[in-house]
Structure prediction request, 244 residues.
Amino acid sequence: MDRIAVISDIHGNIPALEAVLEDIKSRNIERTFCLGDLVGKGPDSYMAVELVRTHCEKVVKGNWDDLMLKSDVTDVVKWHQHQLTKEQLSYLEHLPFVIEFYMSGRYVRLFHASPFSVWTRIQPWDHMEKRLSMFENTKNTSYIIPNVVGYGDVHNAYVQNFRGKTLFNTGSVGNPLEITQASYAILEGEYGSLVTKSFSIQLVRVPYNIERAIEQAKNAKLPDLDDYIKELTTARYRGLKDTK
Prediction:
């Protein structure tokens, strides 16, 4: 059986990424795919790009990766852009939209957010029709209807089944918004096989040194530092209002 580690949403958090890569290594998984958002939010986009390029066989573009290429952006985004070299920006610009392959007779499609755009967000609690739209073919995909779809973007790991179709989210390596541990997924089956065989999806949680991540953010003089610390220590999205 083959295994593929699927990571996403690193967001410049190196302690979290290093912990996940070490966990993948400890399981002797030799193939790793990344579903985007290497950069932004955290302090070290430069190193995140370099580590992903070194350890990931395939990488797709996320919305933050796309944001690094735009000029009409906030000062916070500009700060993150300045952490990257021209060569790294070119790398992000040319990342593909989708990864598609057969595994144990299932056609698997992986992207950052949805088949429509890196900016079109689908949550696990969205209406059934909206979640089923994740299996649609678009100008960004092949013509083959997938049996399995995986994505990142929403920082919430889950697996849902819809009468023979499976939708899963990897969660986030560097900015998890459920519990304060890094998250990724493992696909197990026969890679490249059109023959139906056993197949599984495992969601993995990895504790990492959050205090080290915060210290790195402070040393880098990260903008929006308080919001970043809140997300790392509470797994609560900064955009949510307090209910006290």
In short: Helices lie at 14-26, 45-55, 63-67, 75-81, 86-93, 128-132, 210-219, 225-234. The first helix runs from residue 14 to 26. The mean pLDDT is 96.
